[in-house]
Amino acid sequence: MLCGTAHAQSLKDLFLKMPQEVCPVLSEYNRLEIVDNQKNNKTMQTRNLFRTFSKMEELTDDYAHLVISKNSEKEMKILKKNDGTPIIMVISTIFCDDTPDSSVAFYSTDWEPLRTLDYYTLPAIDNFRRVTIDKTTNQLTVTTTNAPFIVRTDGKNTPIEPMTLTNTFRWSVADNRFILND
Description:
There is one protein chain. This protein is mostly beta strands. The chain has two domains: 11-118, no CATH class; 125-180, no CATH class. Helix content is 10%, strand content 41%. It has two helices and eleven strands; from the N terminus they run ααβββββββββββ. The strands form two sheets. It has a seven-stranded antiparallel beta sheet with strand order 1-2-3-4-5-6-7, covered by helices on one side. Strands 8-9-10-11 form a four-stranded antiparallel beta sheet, with no helix packed on it. β1 (45-47) and β2 form a beta hairpin. α1 runs antiparallel to α2. It is elongated, with a radius of gyration of 22 Å.
């Protein structure tokens, strides 16, 4: 008898089936070694394809935090759509001078890419950059805040304080351009 019963897959199972394109540095063997190390109560690390170590900080049935290198990491979380269908969210982060730059992607449990904008709404441009011009003084003020892009999924880390920068420029008639005020 054929039946299409779907059983709940843990993130451990999905991690083992993850295509190498999602994390090119880890081979199938590397992923198996990480899970095997967890089963044997060992440190969940492996020598990756760059011949450095990657370490799984946390691996549960619905969450994984993988440190790929000192400058990159991935977080994976199983989410449920409104109809109960599970999907996988993957947040990939690269660190440049301790400043994180993250991207988010969504996949089916068969690791088929899903359209990100169906699951994530981008913040309005005004939420992170505001430009104002004072017409009486001809000053241009640009305020930039990185707050909309700070996302922490594991709940352990202290939230990073948003960085806000404000620069004011004045119009120089002689130079025919805006100049940063001192």
